[in-house]
Design brief:
The chain is an alpha/beta fold. The chain is built from 20 helices and 32 strands. The structure holds pyridoxal-5'-phosphate.
Length: about 700
């Protein structure tokens, strides 16, 4: 078992042991309802009172209110509701209230969403106004100056969750004061708790929401500060708890845990100093620079919390970076939403004016003030391991030539595929249907392994090849005459099954034959196989590439073993065949889970365990042994190549594994569709294998 290194504290943190103990006490010994007047209730009430008193001192609540709630989203909600109800009352009384609801462009989504929601529900019809930020991520004070006089409410944050950039709250306050603004001011303090000195009642801040789980308390507990005299409307009415400000029996376990964290903060004996945290950040940044050449940091360290690093690496997507870190059991997060293969850019980095590749490829690495030397040292070692894994896979420039790849490779983006056939012995390759999106990847692959590209061919006429040709430089002989499909004039010939003689390119022991097809021969299909003499019989054809419809174009190769490699693959089939099942099998029929896997492997000693993650993930993995077996690495991009082998040895069971069970399911479905009856996927993937976090 390896240990995970958790560097995603801006998303949530581990729970402080003292907080777990306090929560257990509140559930075990002091389980009473703090509203009860008997002794059991009074014992519970002490927890509540102590936690509130501690928060009041620590945050400088003064004569303001501090209530416990479920977290910052509720706190933001309550603040917005309170301000907007007050604005509506003032408006109905004939007062001028301003026309704008101003919020920082980098606020958490909970802010604009709440503003829009309550503005609509309360029928206020004020205009939402996004306040721009400077390139360093701080609020644009001149832009605020321009609108402050007309602002009904202003929402800014203490520190940003993606970048850690610290807001100039005094500057904002000065602008609001100078404009004579009567706007209500909410400051989202979620990321500031325990990291920034807050003395709330000495400021003009009206509302300040907090979430416990960003600082070592559990999820589902938060606080809201409301300045003395600032209007307040409860969001939840009921039994009158929290002085009638937030009804519902209190989350006593959460409050006890948060109280323990606040007490530790107040004592000052548990968390690291800012200087120590800065030195941790510097060490992580140095390791990242060494491991990932060209890395750029997206947050200015001198204006950000020392606990947040946000970076992008040229040529690498946030998905790839996330995957390699996750394989090395370093938990980080994408700076942007990246559920699909193409990540959506981060609106925070967009607002800072960063180019798309940086905002779409960003990674956030964040730790908390509990971080220790050992964890940072271990993280630096894992970062180095990730860099080595990416270099070995040619994803980042490498000094040494990588071990050359051999065989068929599929590159896919959103349903479209490019294919490469590589021959390690001759260090040469052929590219089929290259997509512009894959230019950089093909180029780095070819350069890093020092391959010579023999031909760049396409299944459709006049498909653009120029970009790739330019990028390949000396690795492609651009003087070779080729037709409008990229097919070289120097091609030789082979004879097919039906006696037709067609053009062919030799690649080591392999041959790529070109078959005109389509109604007026306007399409091309390519057949790839191993031939002897000058014949390529149907049984020797292993792969066929064609623009649709494959069935029409490939009548000469309708044998079971030939895999059809599509140029479009919206359904993630990877490859198919003439006799493939049209429908994928039900997922449940292909799944093994951790409980059934052992028994399955024991019953099938010949079963192959196949890890379908990318090679850099496999290389970064802390252990390739799983369930007592060493897994073979076959990424999805190589599935077609291996499927053709596995189908020949069909009785051998295949168990696919990956990080979460998604990719392995696709692989199992592909093999089943192709006729393999014993292909399975490990449900839930490696992520469900138990790990023990190192707290950071
Ligand atoms: N505000 C900021 C800056 C945050 O980082 C978060 C959580 O990511 C929230 C608000 C919402 O907090 P919660 O989901 O705990 O309600």
């Amino acid at each position: 078992m390896t240990t995970e290194i958790y560097l995603d504290s801006n998303a949530t943190s581990v729970v402080l042991p003292a907080a777990i103990a306090a929560a257990a006490d509140a559930m075990g010994q002091r389980y009473g309802n703090p509203s009860s007047t008997h002794a059991t209730g009074l014992q519970a009430k002490v927890i509540l009172d102590d936690a509130r008193a501690c928060a009041t001192r620590l945050l400088g609540v003064g004569s303001g209110r501090l209530m416990f709630n479920s977290g910052a989203t509720e706190g933001i909600q309550t603040s917005v509701l309170s301000a907007l109800v007050a604005l509506r009352e003032r408006k109905n009384a004939g007062a001028a209230i301003g026309s704008l609801l101003v919020y920082g462009a980098t606020e958490h989504k909970a802010v604009p969403e709440s503003l829009a929601h309550w503005n609509r529900l309360l029928g206020l019809n004020l205009a939402l106004h996004k306040l721009p930020v400077n390139p360093d991520g701080t609020h644009h004070l001149n832009a605020l100056r321009d609108v402050a006089g007309d602002a009904a409410m202003v929402c800014t944050m203490a520190a940003n969750n993606e970048t850690g950039v610290i807001s100039d709250l005094s500057g904002i306050e000065a602008v609001l004061a100078a404009s004579g603004s009567k706007a209500y001011w909410m400051v989202d303090c979620v990321q500031g708790l325990g990291k920034l000195k807050l003395d709330l009642s000495s400021t003009r801040i009206d509302y300040a929401p907090f979430s416990g789980h960003k600082l070592y308390a559990p999820k589902g507990i938060g606080m809201l500060y409301v300045r003395a005299g600032t209007p307040f409307t409860p969001l939840i009415m009921g039994g009158g708890q929290e002085g009638g400000q937030r009804s519902g029996t209190e989350n006593m376990a959460g409050i006890a845990a948060l109280g323990a964290v606040l007490a530790a903060l107040e004592r000052g004996d548990t968390f690291r100093t800012s200087a120590e945290l800065c030195s941790f950040r510097a060490r992580l940044a140095d390791s990242l620079r060494a491991a990932l050449p060209g890395i750029v940091f997206n947050n200015p360290f001198d204006k950000a919390l020392p606990t947040t690093l946000n970076f992008s690496v040229p040529g690498l997507s946030s998905r790839e970076l996330m995957d390699v870190f996750d394989a090395a059991e370093v938990r980080v997060s994408a700076g942007s939403a990246c559920s699909s293969s193409k990540a959506a850019p981060s609106y925070v980095l967009d607002a800072m004016g960063l180019p798309l590749w940086r905002s779409a490829g960003a990674i956030r690495m964040s730790f908390g003030p509990l971080a220790d030397e050992a964890t940072i040292a271990a993280a630096c070692a894992r970062i180095e391991r990730c860099g080595a894994a990416l270099r070995a896979s040619c994803l980042i420039p490498s000094e040494r030539t990588a071990v050359p790849h051999d065989g068929l490779l599929q590159l896919g983006v959103e349903g479209a595929c490019s294919w490469m056939m590589l021959d390690a012995a001759s260090r040469s390759c052929i590219v089929i249907d290259p997509l512009p999106d894959h230019t950089a990847r093909i180029e780095s692959y070819v350069r890093c392994q020092n391959y010579q590209v023999q031909a760049i061919v396409s299944t459709l006429p006049n498909a653009g090849r120029g970009m790739l040709i330019d990028a390949l430089g000396r690795h492609f002989n651009r003087n070779t005459d080729a037709d409008q499909y990229g097919w070289p004039q120097t091609a030789t010939a082979v004879t097919l099954e039906d006696g037709a003689t067609v053009g062919a390119i030799r690649l080591g022991a392999h041959v790529l034959a070109c078959v005109p097809c389509g109604a007026g021969d306007e399409l091309r299909a390519y057949l790839l196989g191993d031939t002897q003499d000058n014949r390529l019989p149907a049984t020797a054809v292993r792969f066929a590439f064609s623009a649709r419809p494959a069935q029409q174009s490939l009548r000469t190769v309708s044998v079971e073993q030939t895999l059809l490699c599509p140029t479009r693959d919206e359904k993630n089939q990877f490859c198919t065949s003439m006799c493939a099942e049209p429908e994928a099998m039900q997922a449940a029929d292909l799944q093994l889970n951790s409980a059934t896997l052992d028994a399955f492997l024991q019953a099938h000693p010949d079963a192959r365990l196949v890890d379908v993650r990318e090679p850099y993930e496999f290389a970064a993995t802390m252990s390739s042994a799983f369930a007592g077996r060493v897994a073979q690495s076959v990424p999805l991009s190589r599935l077609a190549e291996y499927a053709s082998e596995w189908l020949r040895h069909e009785p051998t069971p295949l168990v696919f594994i990956c990080r979460s069970g998604n990719r392995s399911m696709k692989a199992a479905q592909c093999l089943r569709r192709l006729g393999h009856r014993q292909a399975y996927s490990l449900n839930g993937g490696l992520a469900l294998a138990s790990t023990m976090p190192l707290a950071a």
